[in-house]
């Protein structure tokens, strides 16, 4: 069938009405205008939300910077309180210093501060006096470290609380460290509180977070000094506080959801020195931050550049997702509106095209029907409600032997010699459940000739308005086909009789062969038993009268009778394989092979034999017959590989030619020439002499018969002194008929 859309397009051609062109332009204009309005409104709302979120983020960063600044000022207040203690007392005792530190409650109010201490300013000439004063005061030996001669020293005298790390820091000369020295010198010369750059706090292990030190200078007599030189002359020491940067910043920043990454760089000397960083690095972050803001903090002689990165846009601007939804809705509404306008403009053109197409379809349908009637090889006739012929094609005229025009008005039933269904009653019926098609084979009278058999197909069809047409009849001449079917039936009956006769002959032949096999075995066994018995008596009673050659001949006679008996047993076994009924079922070949190997090992020990059996070998077949199959193949493999230093047998499964799975039994024994592989499965065919390997030549023939009875196949590969491989295929599941499918 042709595509209606394509037919409409072909019918329209390039002659489109001007109104349709204007409709397309209008639809395009509506789409462009609505999209511009949608995108403009969305861009305005997005910019507004972005600016609001950025303003909120900047306010948060300012609050964080202010909190850090305020906390540093609190630290300065604590240090200046300690300096005031030195102004009221010439030199506070360690107990007084401890009382002051405990009164400040450092652990609760300032958890990031690791201690509150005092370091003395001591020229080199005054260092021995200080050590004597320290010892005379009962504080023990003051060991100043690191050792070395310096112009000035800044040893730690007090450091509270007295933790093991703080106690170990007493005597440490902070002037020996460059970073500490610079901060202490600035505080001494400026008379203001100064902070050091990032340093490694004493007692912390390698890799620990950096720390900072805050210094407040102390002068003699608390005088207000104007020049750096005067301050150096009046310098007594410093009250200082070491604190950890990471703990200090994290306790100040808190869990701020808008800040994903926060870093501090010390730019006091022009070069950015990392002080603190939190969150993922800029390279490791999967998404870019929505905002980045920098705040510069100048405090205590240091210049800190703090950089804040916000979370990605999806979290920093939470209402942005709603804006995207609104944008998608606006785009959809714009497309829908333009589609409606375009559909309305297109409706008129399609209506005219459909009307024109329906008229053309009616004309072509009528032409196709007339052509089919005229040139069809099958006879056709239109019938009215009375069963009379309204119109007939030439093929029907040839079948009945009349001109088609002369059939008009003829009762269709009058053309047949036999009785058939009442077409008049069937054509008049209009029940919903009635058959719309009737088929029948009738015998038709042909003018001036023998009757013909025709296959009738009658169908109800409507006629044109005002026309009495109720049905269409097709008449196909099947005379030759019926005659051919009759001849085929007669031939089938003859063939059935022949098959039955041949079946009876085969049954009789099988019975005669079975009787012959049993009679032969019985008739042969009797003389064999006589030969064996008399030869045994001859050997026992008259053996001493025979020479060595005679006894050897007698032994050969007895051995020949034994082989003959074994051959008779093998023939009977092979004949039973063709008659025994198969009871198929699932069989575990791996377990069956292990049992066969154990039985063969029990009969004859092979201590050096290695047997490898693949697990999970399963097939569908008769278990006793498959056991016989494996027993023959494994027995042959053991027999032909027994002479090897390390005999080895492998039983497994692989994909064979054509993708069919095959089981195999492989050995590393004597092997055989590949060109003689076809003789292996013939009865009594042997490729090795009886003196090399014993046997009757029946085992592999039995194996082939078992495999073929299961619907499989078997083949062999080998080479002389290179071992042999026997491949055989078996069904791995029940056939469809046996499964009840």
Automatic annotation (TrEMBL):
Major location category of this protein: membrane
UniProt keyword list: Kinase, Membrane, Phosphoprotein, Transferase, Transmembrane, Transmembrane helix
Residues covered by the Histidine kinase domain: 519-734
Residues of the PAS domain: 365-409
Chain segments annotated as transmembrane: 23-42, 323-345
Compartments reported by the entry: Membrane
Highest taxon, organism lineage: Bacteria
Catalytic activity, EC: 2.7.13.3
SMART domains the UniProt entry points to: CHASE (SM01079), HATPase_c (SM00387), HisKA (SM00388)
Record-annotated CHASE domain positions: 153-253
Catalytic activity: ATP + protein L-histidine = ADP + protein N-phospho-L-histidine
NCBIfam families: sensory_box
Name of the molecule in the record: histidine kinase
